Structure formats: C-alpha cells, structure tokens
Amino acid sequence: VSRQLKEEIRRGFARLEDPLAGLLAMLESSSDWKGKGHSLGYCITTELQLWIKAHPAVPQSGTKLKKLQARVLGMLSQCPANLLDPLISIYQLHTADRNYLLEHVSHLYLQGNYKEAAILSIKLKLQPDQDVEKMCTPLLLQDRANLVEDYVAEYPELQRKLLQTLDTWCDPSFNIRDITRLYHGLSRYKPEKFNCRVLSKLVFRLLERFNVDPALCPNVINQRHLRTLNYLFYKRFVEKTMTEENWADHIQSTVGENRWLQEHLVQSLLRHCDARRAARWAQHCQVPPEMLPWAVAEELQKLHMQDRIEEVTEADNYDTSKKDYYQLPIPRENIHFLQTWEETLQCWEKVLQPGQVVGVDMEWKPSFGMVGKPRVALLQLALKDEVFLLDLPQLLEQAEAEGEKEKLPRFIQMLYSDAAITKLGYGMSGDLSSLAATCSALKDTEKQMQGVVDLLAVDKQVDGLSPEQSHKERGVRQPEKGLSLLVQHVLGKPLDKTEQLSNWEKRPLREEQILYAASDAYCLLEIYERLCKDPKSFGLGSDLAESLVGKQSKKPRAKKQLNKQEAPSPSGQECQGPRKEPSCPPAPISPREFSVVCDNMLQGLGRYLRCLGVDVRLLDNEDDHRKAAEIARQEGRVILTSGLPYQTLSSQVGEGRCFSVNCSKKAKEQALQVLKHFNVQVSLSDIFSRCQ
Predict the structure, then answer these.
(1) Which pLDDT score is estimated for 32?
(2) Signed CA dihedral, 285, 289, 293, 297: sign only
(3) Where do the 3'-5' exonuclease domain residues begin and end (predicted)?
(4) Which of the 8 DSSP states describes residue 88?
C-alpha cells in the first residue's frame, strides 16, 4: 500500500466522529472486502487497527460497542481469513458476552456453515464450552482434518475426547454409516475420506502430535497390532525371510496378553501350520487353553503330558544354509559388544584415529506403524580387524546416572565432523534421523558431517544385476534389494537379511543378531575397498575415492524404518530395470504431452505435477495399486509409484512406462526427479495451465 494512500486513510479516520461505525458502514456497503488477497477493504481495516493503537481513547464500550459487535459478528462468516483477526481486535469481540458468541456460532452451525463455525470458535476460544464430537464430525466428513487438529490444539481434554470418539468409530462392530446418515446432503462430503483406515491414520497423527498415551485408543492400537501380526506371518511363512527366533520375539511382544489378538494368533497359526505346531506356539505365547479349537487343545494337552516342548521339524523348507550369503572375514572374538563406558572409551581411542576408515550402521526395533520415531538400540562401528557393537540404551542410561549425558553425543559428533576419518554408511540420512530421535543433542549432526561416503549414492551408479535379474538367477528366494543387492554386485554374495526386522531392544542379543549387525557394518569396508581398487569394472569413474569422500547423500529413504507394513523400495531409488545408461536421453516434451497416473502414496507429487501443467490422474486412498496399471494401459499414461508396488506394476506395462519415486523426498524434489528422467521441459506458460 502506498504511503500516500495510508496517509489519506488515516486523515479520513481523524475526520470521522465514530471511526468504528464508519468502517462497518463502509464494509457493509461494499463487496470488495469479500475477495481474497489484500483488497482496499483489507487495507483500510488494518490501517484502522494501527490507528487505534496510536489513539487509545477511540475504542468504545457499553451499549454502543455491543451494537457494533452484533453487526460485525454477522459479517465474520463471510469475510476472508485475513480480515478475521483485525476485526475481532478492533471490535473487542473477546470481551463480548460469551453466551451471545456461542449462540451466534451455533446459528452458523445449524445453517450448515461448519467450517466458518469452527474457525470463529478457534479465534474466540469458545471450544471448552462446545461439544467436540458435534463440532468436528462434519469437518471430518468434508476432509477438513487439519481444521479439526487446530480446533483441539490448545485443549488437552478436548484432544482426549476427540481421540476416544475416533477410536469408538474404529471399533470393528461399529457401523460408520450411523454417523454419515446424520449428515445426508452435506456439501463437500467426501465418503472416501471417512473410513476406518483414514481415521486410524488421523488417530496416530494426533497421538504423536499431542503426545497422548496410545492406551486411550485400544481399537486403533489393536487393529494396528493385527496388521503387524498378519505382516509377521507373511514374512515368516510366505516370504520366508525371518528366522523362527526373530519371529517369536515379535509375535510375543505384539500379542502379549491381549485376548482379542491371541484369538487372531490361533486362527493364523491354523491357516499356516498343523494342529501340533499351532499348539506349540499357543503354549509358547501363553494362549489360555479355553480359547483354543478342540484339535489344538488336544495337542496342547499332549505337550503338557510330555512336560516339555518338542522341537518340531521345519515343514516349510526354510533355507537355513548360510553358505550362499556374505560371510564375515574376521574371527568371532573380534566382534565386541560394549555395554560399559570403560569398554567404550577403548573403542573411541581406536576409532578416532586420523586416516581411519569406519563402517557405520545402526539398528532399532521395527515400529510396525506405531506412534513415535524409532530409537537406535545398537550402533555398529567396523574397523579393518574388528567390529564394535555399542549398546546405546545401556550406555545412555549409565551416562545419565553419572551426570554426563553429553558423553555419547560428543563422541558421535567428533566422529562425524572429523574430515580426517572416512565414515562409510548406506542411507546415512535415515540412520541420523533415528539417532537424533534417540538423543536430541545429535539433531544437527547431519549438517556438520565431513569425510562421509554414503554408499547408497554409489549404488545408483554401479553397473550390475537388477533386482529382477537377481531373483531369476537365485531361484525361489526373494530378490535382493538395497545394501544386500550392492553386496551381491560387488562382493559376489548377498547379505543374509533374516535378522533385519529383529527386536533389537531385547537383551541379551541372540548370536544371529550379533553376526548380522557386525556383517552389516563390516561389508561397507569391503565394498568401499573393492570399488576404490577397480572402479571401472563397476562402471564408475577412476577418481572414485576422491570424488566420494565428503559428499553427503541426498536424503535417501530411511532404511529399516517400517512404519508402514510394506517392504522398502530397492535401495530407495529409481528401479527402471537393469542399470544401464540409455544410449540417448528421451526427446524433450512439454508437460501438456506428459500423462501420468500417480499411485495413492504419491498424491502430493501428483498435485505438484498438475501445477506444472502435467496431465495427472490420482488414485484414491482406497484404490488397489493395480488400478494404476489398468488406467495406464487404457489411457496411455506413465505410472508413478514407489516401494513394493513397483515390482508388480512394472511387469504389467511396457518398458519405461513405470517409474519408482523416492518416497523420502518432498513433493518438489520428487517432481524434479520425474521431470528430469522423462526430459519434460516446463515453461512459464505451463504453470497453473491446468485446473487444480
């Protein structure tokens, strides 16, 4: 706003006998102020707000102010968001009669203006006197979850009431139509956004944001545990990539003494095992005998009579042979599990040596989609002749008891910031994110990193087998991916990943866990050494060592952080078949010539591409991933997906018609990745050329 206009506005106020009434008269007789952005009405209103501060005698009180407040209240539901605060301030609506304000908001609600009623309630802080379920239900039906979060943000009691309501709706016996039929004919109603799955995600988001005890939402927690249970059965009996001990650890911690989950455990056991093995596991997990089917209960009685649990011969052809996997080249006695600071200080002296090359990895208990970020349970540091496994929970507890909480952060910061020490990792950004969640003093470690080599960045450049070819060559076993695939490319054999999803917080660690953790860190040293010795044979530049050290990775996907029940995408990177440089880049095309269908985990990317003029179709949250292939074939679109669905979808469309996007990146970075790959050239005229 020009200085001349501001001065003219202020002179106008000074000439008015009653500036507050004058502003209202102006707004009521004009429609300009109803538009978005900085209208003339907005400029005059905000100038009056500033002018009143300089002239404290102007604000009124008593009957005259009440009449002005009644008039302005009638306007608030129509005015743009940027005028709400100035008008509330000018007309002192916080001092108005609370019952009168509540009555006005109730009138808005009854007219079906649910959004306006909620926003005004937030601005006037009326929530404690309102029914949270009544206010929030229509907003959720209209897919206004963000407004619901804002509505309860400052009121812990309302947060708990809302969470209990949402949890009730997620009860398997609850008919969600009992809610929706009350709002028949609701404008902007989005039924696809109002179901148990979407509500469950909202509950977890609210639990985490407001730091509420998850025990408040037993239905949602039970459903998530059930999905975890089904996932564990899939890993053990279908994919066969989890050891029996590892599986048993997770089953026990997931099911516990929950009768409902125990029932589902028994049903799943009978689907995958015979009655004898089901009885054995029922006894192992302490399932009450009265919950068991007759055949299982009979087998359980036999086990009791024998007074021992017989080891049942594996009937699922689980591959226990280790000879096909990468083997640690150092003796077992050179792997040290450190639980005291005395031992750890000796480790530091060896690690913090100039010129040292250190393989770094971390392990944490899989969260399986539960609340909170995973906390690192084990830090692995591999040197040429030995590997150190640091028991972080134990060391942090000891340091806190001794009043020296900064001990561990100081060591880790020294390690990562020392350019004279080469640190090797794979997906370092994900590891450091979990490290920061474990110890808040380490949240800026990534910004201070020097002398690091993230082999995930190298992985994208290495010539070798694709995951699909690896699968074909190795027969029935699952295709290798991520670090295991890189180890296979460079060292000849993949990593044995059967302990990856272990309970890393349980002590003592099993021997298999110790060997797995040591291998995960040590293999980085061997890969780096092999690539540096002969980079050309892997399709890399001859100055590999010099070019890699000091370069940070571009925030790769956090590995092992399975907050969703899905396998991570191979290496968290693009997976367009064999890794060969194309003979020539695709011809440049405009966004208008580029048609895509975005899988439902990439809706943010889809909206961003649409802003750039790309022809985008988005799958809804409830759609099966396979619908993307159907749309792609019918309409000639390219599929944009991520993770496990890529493997399925890429086989259903032509070569180059399916692209795997890095889910750990923001929508803008994902869009740049897609545009670069398909050589889409965006011009100024393309931006916002399509209806949003």
Answers:
(1) 64
(2) positive
(3) 335-536
(4) H
Please write the tens of the pLDDT for every residue from 416-443.
Answer: 999 999 999 998 888 888 898 888 888 8
- Angle CA 183–188–192, to nearest 5: 80
Q: Is the pLDDT of residue 486 over 70?
A: yes
Q: Which of 159-173, 306-320, 564-578 has the highest mean pLDDT?
A: 159-173
Assess whether pLDDT exceeds 50 at residue 551.
no
What does the alpha-carbon distance between residue 221 and residue 200 come to, in Å, rounded to a whole number? 9
Q: Tell me which residue of 557, 555, 361 sits closest to 447, measured CA to CA.
A: 555
- Structural domains of the chain, ranges and CATH numbers in brackets: 220-303 (no CATH), 330-462+481-547 (3.30.420.10), 591-678 (3.40.50)
Examine the pLDDT at 312 and tell me if it is beyond 70.
no
317: left (phi over 0), alpha (psi -120 to 50) or beta: left
Characterize the bridge pairing of strands 452-454 and 595-598.
unpaired
CA distance 263 to 430: 36
Q: Which amino acid does the sequence have at 654?
A: G
Rg (CA), the chain: 31
State both tokens at 508. Answer: 């003592």
Most confident of 431-435, 550-554, 578-582: 431-435
State which H helix or E strand residue 227 sits in.
helix 218-233
**For residues 336 and 387, is the Cβ–Cβ distance under 8 A?**
yes
What value does the mean pLDDT of the chain take? 84
Q: Check pLDDT > 50 for residue 31.
A: yes
Question: Based on the number of CB atoms within 10 Å of its own CB, is 176 exposed (0-12), middle (13-18) or buried (19 or more)?
Answer: middle
Point out which residues pair with 363 in neighbouring strands.
378
What mean pLDDT is predicted for residues 381-403? Answer: 95
Task: For residues 154 and 283, give the distance between their C-alpha atoms in angstroms, rounded to a whole number.
Answer: 47
pLDDT in tens, 507-519: 999 999 999 999 9
By residue count, the chain amounts to 692
pLDDT at 2 over 60: yes
Alpha carbons 228 and 555: distance in angstroms, whole number: 27
Give the burial string for 10-25 (b: 16+ CB within 10 Å, else e).
bebbeeeeebbebbbe
Which residues share a beta bridge with 378?
363, 391
Report the distance separating Cα 132 and Cα 135, nearest Å: 5
For residue 76 the two structure tokens come to 């608030």
Pick from 220, 238, 230, 119: nearest CA to 171: 220
Q: Kindly state the helix (H) or strand (E) to which residue 512 belongs, with its residue range.
A: helix 511-533
As a whole number of angstroms, the distance between CA 397 and CA 297 comes to 44
Torsion of the alpha carbons at 271, 275, 276 and 278, rounded to the nearest 10: 50
Say how many Å lie between the first and final Cα of the chain, rounded.
30
Q: Does the pLDDT value for residue 310 go beyond 60?
A: no
Assess contact for 641 and 605: CB atoms under 8 A. no
- By the 10 Å C-beta count (0-12 exposed, 13-18 middle, 19+ buried), 232 is classed as buried
Given a contact cutoff of 8 angstroms between Cβ atoms, the answer to whether 32 and 40 are in contact is yes
Helix H or strand E encompassing 76: helix 62-76
| Alpha-carbon span 431 to 558, nearest angstrom | 7
Helix (H, G, I), strand (E, B) or coil at 589: strand
